[in-house]
Amino acid sequence: MESAAKTPKSLTLPSTTRITLWLLDIGLNLIMRKDGTVNRGLLKLVPLTPPSSEPINGVKTYDVVVDPTRKLWFRVFVPTQYTVEDLPVMVFCHGSGYIVASADTQLYDDFCRKFARELHVIVVSVDYRLAPEHRHPAQHEDGLDVLKFLDVEENRSKWLPGNANITKCFIAGDSAGGNMAHHVAVRASQFNFQQLQVQYILTLFETSPRSSVAEERMVVGLVSIQPFFGGEERIGSEIRLNGTAPVLTLKQTDWFWNAFLPLGEPYNRDHPVVNVSGRYAVDISKMDLPPTIVVVAGFDILRDWQIRYYEWLKKSGKEVYLVDYPNMFHGFNLLPELPESDQLILEVKDFIHNVLNKVFTALIRNLKQITLSLPLL
Question: What is the CATH number of domain 24-204+213-370?
């Protein structure tokens, strides 16, 4: 789980997967106009999935509007076979370069449905504003505002099922959503959320300050699947795989960043929102960031940026794990016909289990300290 595996010389994929990737690449190039705008009309051909109160593959869904003025909403995925259990909440940020896709895009609806069913979690899939119509920081603001929305007791009781435990909140994302998940987690670590269930127990007896109690995090874990990072420099995997990897080219990633970043200085690809671990990186060493799992693939042109991200987190003193799929490509997690997409689910499931075990252990330790500090009656 820790070391990067050796990448094979060639990529072995089923013919059906190759055809799917070829069609996706054609579609992506058609919607990216030369003037930097997106052909939204063509995107109307992309299949969407409506919410379903009746379970589909063991999961029911419904949509919740956070702010109608900016069309911010999220889709809730509820696994129906775990109606009694205390389930974690996973806030999910979809990928696609910050320019396309949505919480109801069929590809992501299917993926989040699988996450909810296999991971035994309540998935909250954020439908954030897209670039270039809405440039940075709109997307990260939307992600944080969903966390703020869920932090309000009235909203939780109205919009989340009764077995959802917000004190076990994870944030996840793939590609651009992985970039977004990181930055939202950083923002969340600096925001004073309202007191949650675990905090009620601890503050009841006037325990130690907020910063010293691990269970008080709003976000207890971060799942970063092939996060979209970059920089002005062209590094190993970009040079080696550009034009040969089945998904993503430098031309496409440059286009995405140009659409996402605000115009003018200081916004280029070395800005810390893109080059998260570069020379202008934010100092996270003293931030209370959650444990993180970083997923990389051998045939992803972003691979070396993602490994730099992992190494930066580790160097900054954060708990972080690396999972490498040497014979996979960018976005493999969205294709259920690939066995590696199922393996990824198992890796994330183990990560969630380990994180929650540590949270529970820390809680018991703190409760013991509280009990010992109580005056004898």
Answer: 3.40.50.1820
